[in-house]
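Q: Could you predict the 3D structure of Ionic transporter y4hA?
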Amino acid sequence: MAISTGSPLTSWTTAAPVLAMVVLAASWGRDLAVPVAVVVGVVLMGAVLAAVHHAEVVALRVGEPFGSLVLAVAVTVIEVGLIVTLMVSGGPETASLARDTVFAAVMITCNGIVGLSLLLGALRHGLVSFNAEGTGAALATVATLAVLTLVLPTSTTSRPGPEFSPAQLAFAAVASLAVYGAFVVTQTVRHRDFFLPVTPAGEVLGDDAHAERPSPRTALTSLGLLVVALVAVVGLAKVLSPSIEAGVAAAGAPQSFVGVVIALLVLLPETISAGRSAVRDRVQTSLNLAFGSAMASIGLTIPAIALATVWLDGPLLLGLGPTQTVLLAVTVVVGVLTVVPGRATRLQGAVHLVLLAAFLFLAVAP
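A: Sure. Here are the predicted structure tokens for Ionic transporter y4hA:
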């Protein structure tokens, strides 16, 4: 594992988050010219790479599946802050922002991160193996959360349109937290071995024994820098959002594609980290990241948005349209067929990536 576990205070991985915060402070609330927006974008990429590094250092210290959980929850908590901030500062067009961003996160994680991880792992090692019990439980949890919060609003009749009534929204929020909490307990306490990397013969490998375990001080420093980097990533994504919106409008794409771009930016740390794990033949870690991020994106975002509706004006549109529902259903079916054998080839990775491409294409040209 190519991670230096020495002092993080003497490397670019410390400078990048600090620089990103400085740029964030200098650019917050300003209209960015095109050259400045490009510079902000470059700094944003540096913060993303630094976040990946520090997340992997923390993961080495706490072990799997806690390491994957740290990154998934940290990114999602800040993603919630970004969505709420944009909804507060936005107008009626932000009524569907939470739905667009959460659904994009589900498609990116369950097809993009999963597909990329399987493809990279299979290209490097021929056949990748993972624990079907733990991964299947994760996929089932994602499917349940997605149906409860994104599919049912289209079918209910208490409110016109794809919208929950206040009582229905409260139930969906509590149910999401309960399901997500039950999964976290299962993953980290009761059946942790279901989520550890395995050999082709099914033998549990445990934590990465080929990497030096960082000291508590190094891990705590990296945890702090991870938080700083993630705050910078989401803050800079918000700073760039007017430029993103202008670019989306200039390209003739619908307003909903803004949520897709935001999700792509916020999920970059998980994507890069999952790809690195897959190359090291730790596909189970990659799948933990993918499905864990999807779960956290729904299970934490929807309750937070439900609470925020107390002071947010306007409707909250959560229900998916017919095209999105079909894509979600196909993703779940393909995911089940991928997970059940407990091993996969590059074909499964390619299929998931094609589904992601279909989602992105239809998001631009619905």
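Q: Anything worth pointing out?
A: The chain has one domain: 8-364.
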